[in-house]
Amino acid sequence: MKTIGVLTSGGDAPGMNAAIRAVVRTACENGMKVYGINRGYQGLIDDDLVELNIRSVSDIIHRGGTMLYSARCLAFKEEEGMQKAIETCKKHGIEGIVVIGGDGSFRGARDLSLRGIPCIGIPGTIDNDIVSSDYTIGYDTCLNTIMDMVDRIRDTVESHSRCFVVEVMGNRCGDLTLNSGIAVGATAIVIPEIQSDIEKHVIERIRRTQKTDKKHFIIMVAEGVGGVADLAKKIQEECGVETRSTVLGHVQRGGSPTARDRVMASQMGYYAVKLLMQGIGNRVVVMKDDKIVDYDIYEALTMTKEVDTTLYQIAHEISI
Ligand code: ADP
């Protein structure tokens, strides 16, 4: 391959820039031409491309967001949009594309690969909800942001002897909520993967800790469960503790990526280009059992991922 493209698609995540940098530098160092495709698949349809060289990606490794912008592009799901994207590739001689995004973006990458443009997916999302990968770029940064935000909430919760119900972004995946819940010592954690009886797992837990003289409480609830305002009301009424709720929201998406995300993004970006250099496409580069490996995209999309029930049990036993 002589010319490749790189794009970021779906929800942005800290570390996407580090992945773009790794892709561009690996390709340039191996004599390839690289196009940055703006706004995900939309840029491919609109022919919104910019040629990148090793200096174009200087000073971005530490920056959150994505220098190539991201978008959700409905037109790309239609054959007409897909054909326009292929025309853009042909026009610029793009022979392969690295797609940084989530499972939705990987579906697009699979469709393009099937139509003759080999694509390699790299998992980029704060949610850690990519079924084929144990880890997604942006997850560690996000986890640390949540911990930092809740530590701040905790200072005020403690001063006023209150309870705070915090909604954590994370799509349908409870990983961010469970892990941050342990990291902040939450009294209760509610995630979509584990059926929770609010009376037993939240109200009774608060009452029990009240008996041990605990006066302030943090309850972490995943976005996929929601209803934090109602839960706060219920806790106040049933436990007699002043309770507030908050939704952390998009603050979770920003910030400078952690070392883990930068290193992971660099490894995966490098690995993805090495696959394209061998003429290999229709693969995703993922982390499995602490190793970077690649899978067929179709196979990757049909995999399943289980929540760590042991971690949930640990949280249940020690956060009292
Ligand atoms: P994520 O990649 O984070 O899962 P989305 O599900 O929003 O985010 O997908 C990002 C983009 O990938 C969509 O806007 C669309 O352009 C493309 N995409 C998603 N699903 C498909 C599909 N089934 N076929 C083709 N393209 C898709």
Write the topology of this structure:
Layout: E1 3-8, H1 16-29, E2 33-37, H2 41-46, E3 49-52, H3 79-92, E4 96-101, H4 103-114, E5 119-123, H5 139-159, E6 163-168, H6 175-183, E7 188-190, H7 198-211, E8 217-222, H8 228-239, E9 243-247, H9 259-277, E10 283-288, E11 291-296, H10 297-301, H11 309-318
Parallel strand pairs: 1-2, 1-4, 4-5, 5-10, 6-8, 6-9, 7-8
Antiparallel strand pairs: 2-3, 10-11
Adenosine-5'-diphosphate binds near residues 9 and 77.
Write up what this structure looks like.
- This protein is an alpha/beta fold and 320 residues long.
- The chain is built from eleven helices and eleven strands.
- Helix 1 packs parallel to helix 9, helix 5 packs across helix 6 and helix 6 (175-183) packs parallel to helix 11.
- It is elongated.
- The chain starts with a strand and ends with a helix.
- The relative contact order is 0.17.
- Bound molecules: adenosine-5'-diphosphate.
- Adenosine-5'-diphosphate is lined by residues 9-11, 41, 72-73, 76-77, 101-105, 107-108, 111, 125.
Question: Which terms summarize this structure?
Answer:
single chain; 320 residues; alpha/beta; 7-stranded mixed β-sheet; 4-stranded parallel β-sheet; 11 strands; 42% helix; 18% strand; elongated
Structure described in brief:
The chain is of the alpha/beta class. Helices cover 42% and strands 18% of the residues. The strands form two sheets. The protein has a seven-stranded mixed sheet, sandwiched between helices. The chain has a four-stranded parallel sheet with strand order 7-8-6-9, with helices on both faces.
